[in-house]
Design brief:
- Helix 2 runs antiparallel to helix 3 and helix 2 runs antiparallel to helix 5.
- By secondary structure, the protein is mainly alpha-helical.
- It has a single domain, classed as nmb1532 protein domain like (Four Helix Bundle (Hemerythrin (Met), subunit A)), CATH 1.20.120.
- It contains five helices and no strands.
- It is about 85% helix and about 0% strand.
- The structure holds fe (ii) ion (2 copies).
- One fe (ii) ion binds next to helix 2, helix 3 and helix 4.
Amino acid sequence: MEHFSILIDQHKNIRNLLQAVQKKIPIQERTELLKRILTEINAHTLVEERHVYPVLENFEPLKREVYGFWREHERLRQELHSVIAVAQDERQFQNQMVRLSQTFEEHIKEEENRIFPEASKVVPKEELKKIDRNIAISVEQTKKVA
Ligand SMILES: [Fe+2]
Ligand SMILES: [Fe+2]
């Protein structure tokens, strides 16, 4: 896809981290990975909430759909916090991780297969370029702070 490529890369990166943390690894490593996942998910959802969703909401066919996406971000962050809270308990941790991974996969599937392609059709080229630029700038700034 021509647009939103940084977001799609971030999806892949987060998916890899979610898979890595579910492997049999020392608890210390798990804690470290969870911290990174928290940082990455926060950064990613924030960029979408700041630079993508508000623009898409201006276009009628996307407006209603995007509403649900804000709520899914909220759910993602809540589920991640639940995972972190039970990180020391093997069984609970694995259970909560399955749930979080599912929520994440469903969310990004909708974005990549439905929302981003639809936005690429409905939103004018100039607006799309502006979104991509804002995403890139925002990601660069986050890197500098980190
Ligand atoms: Fe999202
Ligand atoms: Fe996303």
